[in-house]
Amino acid sequence: MQRLHAVVAGAGIGGLTAALALHRRGWHVTVCERAPEPPTTGAGIGLAPNALRALDAIGVDAARAAGSAVPATMGVRRADGRWLTRAETSYMAARYGTPPIAVPRPAFTAALAAALPAEALRYGTTVTGVDDATGRPTVRTAEGPALQADLVVAADGIHSPLRRAHFPAHPGLHYLGETAWRTLVDAPDLRIPSMSETWGRGTRFGVTPLADGRYYLYATATAPAGTRSADPRAELRHRFGAWHDPIPALLDRVDRFDPADVLQNDLYDLAAPLPRLHHGRIAWLGDAAHAMAPNLGQGGCQAIEDAVVLAHLLPSGGAADPGGGTAAVPAALAAYTTARRERTDAVRRRARRVGRLGALRHPLAAAARDLAVRATPARLALRGMDDLFNGFRLPTP
Description:
Shape: globular
Oligomer: single chain
Number of strands: 18
Strand content: 15-25%
Largest sheet: 7 strands, mixed
Distance between the termini: 23 Å
Helix content: 25-40%
Number of helices: 14
Structural class: alpha/beta
Strand order of the largest sheet: 5-4-13-14-15-12-16
């Protein structure tokens, strides 16, 4: 009996997680990725307890697959180094069953890809459109013949062409008023034990230790969309070089890089929720479905949740007879929208609100913000994350 076939547009974290979850449900999977090869450079990603719980549901041990680091503490600092709030990750582990971990993004995507059949991955293949008017989608690509599918997973990123094509009335993306830099730094000698984000006035700088002795660095600044400097290393030094230790020492390492190793992206989220997360036999997930600000560290985590819930609700891939599994796909996608739309939009709106706090520029407003954060006990603030970290559930199919 022919297996059900899913075509996944995009080999990012959400797309690869969906492909792996469907593969383990018995589906034949084809992943189309426009990049010519897997990424070897990039940034890190934090996997919060909710994402780790979702990965565990499909048998993925992220720490074993990609290596991980568990910092001793996590918190927010001022530019002079004073802690505004700090919590021990051991408390998070006790509260949520596991601490958050940080992994290099390229290593994590490579581990997900390695768990798939080699023939499932088609790099250098761009999905240009999906025709689904006849019931069984036809996936068009720029590089080869069309693919017939029982399901299309649109994991084609924040600028999702498939989202624009199938929801033409949607307002699209909303610029958040900030640009961001990201990079990985090799500095095992610095022995930085904490994951921290430092707030200035309209600027932020984050440091996340990784297991291999590297550090994931990110920085943001309020700026008009499209603002670029000739040398991002010099721009980071100008903006953050006088901040507290170990930021200057980390920037020393960044100065040794090729400028192309420092990624810069303006920050956008979705201006409004999609009316639904599916159309016909197409399902959207991750940034394509609900692009959000990175302020809660939940963009990748929600993509993982999407992927696991989607595969869980779909029928087993081994029954493609007309009255069997394939006929159940539309109802499963409607259930997916019901299960995921409200949660992901709540996280999107919350991430936008947190970003507004971090981007405050007026000295009095920033001082009031810092005072309010310092006055809130760390454990009380952490309990405010319960709905995020404990919010993953597998719905009843």
